[in-house]
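Many introductory courses stop at the sequence. We go one step further.
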Amino acid sequence: MDLRKVLIRLIKNIMGKCAFIYFGAIITNALFSGLFKIVGSFLIRDLFAMAEKGTAEGVWALVSKNLLIGGVALVISIVATVVYMNEAKRAIAKLNQLVYMKSVRLPMTYYETHHTGDFMSKLMYDTERTGDVFGSRIRRLLMPIIMVIIYLIPMLYLCPQVTIGLLVVHGISLLVNTSMV
């Protein structure tokens, strides 16, 4: 069976309809943590522009506006992280429950022919590794992709020529590096 199909089946069986909350929280976390970082970089850019002009007019409005937007983005990102972690813990608990319920239903002859300690050790290790998928691995896979997309939006807005040039150079670098492997 294909690994992608196994992962999709695992998510459907373990998370069910809560998968929308789980993935929504991951996406929300990425969006608002990216927004927080972008707001911080725009604040620094605008402060340097004011310093170059030699004026401090409107600095308090600029700082307070950016702090407010950044603070709201940070709070939403933290709430999304809490929601994501709660859904991941719920999925891990359900996975553990399902695995142990299956192991209890095994016939007694299985335990007579197999060492119980080895069986339980393998069972616990496998469920912990599968739980790691929900706990952090999916988030670590999706977050960088979403963050790159979020960072590309202001880059394309500010200077599309440089952004497209960087994307072309990175694409060529990716092709060269993958062809050498």
